[in-house]
Amino acid sequence: MERIDRSRAPKKPGPLPLAGMERPDPARGLVRLLGFVLGGPVTLVEEGDRLLMQRGSLSREVAPALLSHCLSQGLLAREGDRLRPLAPARPLLKRLLTGGAESHRAQHGLIATEERLVEGERRPVTVNRQESVLGTLALMKDREGEPWFSAGAVAAGERLARDFTFAGLQPRMTARWEPRLSTCGKGMRGGQAELSDHQIDARRRLNAALEAVGPELSGAALDVCCFGKGLEQVERERQWPARSAKLMLRTALQLLARHYGIGGDQTAPISLSFASTSAEGSPVIGRR
To answer: DSSP H helical segments within 81-175, as ranges?
Structure first.
């Protein structure tokens, strides 16, 4: 009698996966917990073996192990039956919601989509506004909720910073290890003879822009746009009144925008007046 090898017999197909079914995400519970707590004051309520979070008329069950993990990691704080988020909770939630390779940049930056000139065409590009001081200052609002610095003023500041970088004027923070390619002999000064044509053109554009701004305001434009100093640092170093640097900088950027021909009214005069001051003692800058 022939012996049958059942190991070679075809196996029955298993159950097909349901369409649209997602894999369980271990971070989903953490996202739901942090998102619920960050939405407002949360009260913990125990109902038998269940632990509920209540916020107004909303209620959501939370796993005790997950809650204990968030408390031990410094994401949440419990005060009696109250639950409140701590400082690391919001950045972590932002990173979890973004996911992928962009999660770290989304957590530690301010990502936005802007139109930039790329190879002669205006295209949407992804930028991090916190990479420069100008990107952060562009978010400042006045009392009416309008941008303190116009788009043309910010673009003029970025153009000044670009020329400053191309001119090679940024001070080095480390040693220079590349070989020195010089055409001058020993003991001779290189100076402008060693600069490339692009660097010379950038320095000419930079000097022309600073002359258009004037000696009173060009220092503030250089400090913020080119050296990346904050407004408070500029006020401290130049011994200016509090909250006056943003006024000085706005006027300087408006003059730069007029020089470059970027946006806005190119004919209305801009004046810097120290005759009148605000309640805080800061100079008032305005148009005549």
So the answer is: 89-98, 103-108, 133-137, 151-166
Q: In the 8-state DSSP scheme, what is residue 100? A: G
CA distances from 222 to 137, 228, 251 (A): 15, 8, 13
- 104 band by pLDDT with thresholds 50, 70 and 90: low
d(CA 249, CA 100): 38
Integer Cα distance of 75 and 93 in angstroms: 10
How far is Cα of residue 144 from the mean position of the Cα atoms in its chain? 23
Q: How far is CA 19 from CA 13, 128, 136, in A?
A: 17, 38, 45
Helix axes 64-72, 28-38, angle to 10 degrees: 70
At 157, list the tokens: 């500041």
CB 135 within 8 A of CB 234: no
As a whole number of angstroms, the distance between CA 51 and CA 61 comes to 6
How do residues 161-217 score in pLDDT, each as one tens digit? Answer: 989 988 888 777 777 666 665 555 555 545 555 678 888 999 999 999 999 999 989
SS3 label, residue 167: coil
Terminal C-alpha separation, the chain: 112
Instruction: Output the pLDDT for position 259.
Output: 94
pLDDT tens digits, 222-262: 999 999 898 999 999 999 998 899 999 999 999 999 999 98
Burial class (CB in 10 A: 0-12, 13-18, 19+), 123: exposed
CB 220 within 8 A of CB 193: no
Between 245-260 and 151-166, two packed helices, what is the crossing angle to 10 degrees?
80
Integer Cα distance of 251 and 288 in angstroms: 13
